[in-house]
Every structure is written in C-alpha cells, then in structure tokens.
Amino acid sequence: MGLIRERIAIDLGTAYSIVAHEKSKNFWRVPSSIAFHALTRLPVAYGEAAKEMAGKGSEKINVVRPLRDGVICDFEAAGQYLTYLVNQARRNPLALQVSVLVCVPWGATPVETKSYKDRIENMRTHVRLIREPFAAALGCDLDVFSPEGCTVVDIGGGTVEISTIAYGHMIHCSSLRQAGNAMDQLIADRMLRTRQFEIGLTTAEEVKMARGSVASDPNIMEEAFEIFGLDRRSGFPRRTTITSEDIRGFLEPITQTIENKLIEHINVLPPEFRSQVESKGIYMVGGGALLRGWKIRLERDFGIKVNIPEDPQLAVIRGMQKVLKHRSRYKSLVKISESEMTN
Ligand code: ADP
Ligand code: MG
C-alpha cells in the first residue's frame, strides 16, 4: 500500500488566505495573521482571533502578517501559519503526509521562491508551488496550453500582475507594486490634503469597496454619501459629504498607472498575441477587478474588451483546485513554477 497523502491548496494572500481541499468544492477564507506572545515568542492565536488582537494594542502580544506585497516577508511566521491552515483543513486522519500547493507571484525573486519550499516545508507537509498567473488563468477557465494565448490582469492588495500565457508558458509578465492598498492610502491622503479631513485606512478601504469606480456608469445613479472622520481644522470628529466622482478622482492616478502598464504590456506582445487581445479581450481578476467601471473604461478608451469572472477574488484558488484535481494534466505548470526562472 502506498503512502496515503492528502492534498490541499492555499492561496496565500497579504490580508486573507484562501484554502481548498481536494475533496471539497468549498473554500475557506482566513485572515493572514498570527499572534505571538511577546516574551515566549510562541503562537497564541491564528486567523480571525489573531486579527482581532491586532487592534487591542496589548504589549504582551505581537500580531504578525507573514506576507507583504504578496510575498512572504516572515518565513518563520509563514511556516507556522501554514501548519495551522493545514491542520484545520485536514480531513483524513490516516494520511501520513499532506501535500500543499502554494501560490507564488510571477514577480517573486528566485531567492524568495526557493525559500517558499525550503523554509515552510516540514516532515509532514510537502510544499508544491504554482505561479499565481497560471492559477488565475485556469480559474477563469482559460486554456493555458493553447497557441492563441490569453491575457490576465490580477489586481490584488499589494501588486498588479499582468500576464500573457500560451503553450503552457509565460509569454510576458508585467508587474506593479501598487494596487488595492495603495488605493486606500490615496483616498486617505487626498481627503486630508484637499479637505483637512482625516480618515483611517479601514474607512478608506470601505469607501473604495462601496463607492469606488474607475469610470461612471450611465446605468448607475451616483448619490452623494457621508463618511465619518476627524476634522483637522476644529479637531472634532464629524461627518462629511462626498461623491462617487470625488472618489474616482482620488483614485485616478493609480487607475492610470494600471491602465498605462496594461497598454505597455499589450504593445510589447508579439503580434499574434496582440491580435488575440484585440479579438478576445483580457480577463481581470483579484479584488481590484471589483472596482466598478473597468469594462466601460477600457472599452471606451482603448477598445479593449474586459471579461471579469464571477468572484474574481477566487480565480486563483479555483485554478489551484483544478491543479489538485488534474495533477498530470498540469504537472508542467508546477514544474515551470518551481524552476527559478522569472522574466
Ligand atoms: P491579494 O491576492 O493581494 O491578497 P485580493 O485579490 O484578495 O488580494 O484583493 C484584495 C484587494 O482587493 C484589497 O485591496 C481590497 O481592498 C480590494 N477589494 C476587495 N473588494 C473590492 C471591491 N468591491 N472594490 C474595490 N476593491 C476591492
Ligand atoms: Mg491574489
């Protein structure tokens, strides 16, 4: 009898991670946080419980997020967090080993990539890697082995990765270290600079998610709304009124940066892939795809058709789930992902 092995996929994210089990269709979303006791340095809480401790300001507890800008910055914490996720996700008590598929951004350096395997693997957890753009494309139901190619834009918290994949290989990948978090920062900065009105990053993110857009939609009535913050002039907390157009204006520098990067990406593609973009359009995934107006804007200004799958934030984990299910079909993608090449 061979070794009984259980397989799990984890989309390690900066703010949240998403876990999938080969035997389940459901996903499980957990804050990427781990709380350590300050003196013993032993973990005391993980996930939601750890995230809640972060705001409490206790001197005895340090809350750590193992990832920054989409890549692991604290391998010790990442290893412990991964072990926690694996233990929670396990279903088969007879399995002697767990094989964990972990995603890595295309833009991770060879040293970072090697560390993923070497430093978070242990006796019972065998780590396999898949590059995020491959998983994202599979999660959009695209055929990554076709000669025509497909182009996917992933707008996450810390990075935007734009990739064109064909023949099971990366044709070209462009990345930006400015994404969702930078948008929140921009909203907070602009509120302060233009109105002397102070809001926290959490409020800025809420405003972005509820009202943010990159183009106005003639089918949506935009109403002014109120936000709560601190009036720097009087020093008192109060409400202020703001419009969706204001937010769009605040976000414009980042929207344009992303748009320029996309156009630059398309322009350097070999002609056959450029014409594929012209005929089929691009696919947009990640939380940032949920900003309203991408389809309108890119179609209007550049004639680019934008496809956004349902639940774009789950595209990567859906793709990883496919890799778990059809291991031999996607073996080459894992092999390429683990070789240290990037471009
Ligand atoms: P990552 O893969 O980097 O962990 P995600 O793909 O989960 O990131 O995306 C997280 C980002 O998406 C955050 O910056 C979050 O604020 C943003 N986001 C989530 N929902 C929305 C929304 N409805 N509108 C705009 N941005 C959103
Ligand atoms: Mg992501």
What descriptive keywords fit this protein?
18 strands; binds adenosine-5'-diphosphate; 2 domains; alpha+beta; 343 residues; 11 helices; five-stranded mixed sheet; Nucleotidyltransferase, domain 5; flat; binds magnesium ion
Descriptive overview:
By secondary structure, the protein is α+β, with helices and mostly antiparallel strands. It has 2 domains: 5-136 and 315-338, Nucleotidyltransferase, domain 5 (2-Layer Sandwich); 142-308, ATPase, nucleotide binding domain (Nucleotidyltransferase, domain 5, 2-Layer Sandwich). Helix content is 38%, strand content 27%. It is built from 11 helices and 18 strands. The strands form 5 sheets. It has a 5-stranded mixed β-sheet with strand order 3-2-1-9-10, with helices on both faces. A 5-stranded mixed β-sheet has the order 13-12-11-17-18, sandwiched between helices. Strand 9, helix 3 and strand 10 form a beta-alpha-beta unit. Helix 5 crosses helix 7 (244-267). The two termini are 42 Å apart. Bound molecules: adenosine-5'-diphosphate (ADP) and magnesium ion. The site of adenosine-5'-diphosphate has 19 residues, from helix 5 and helix 6.
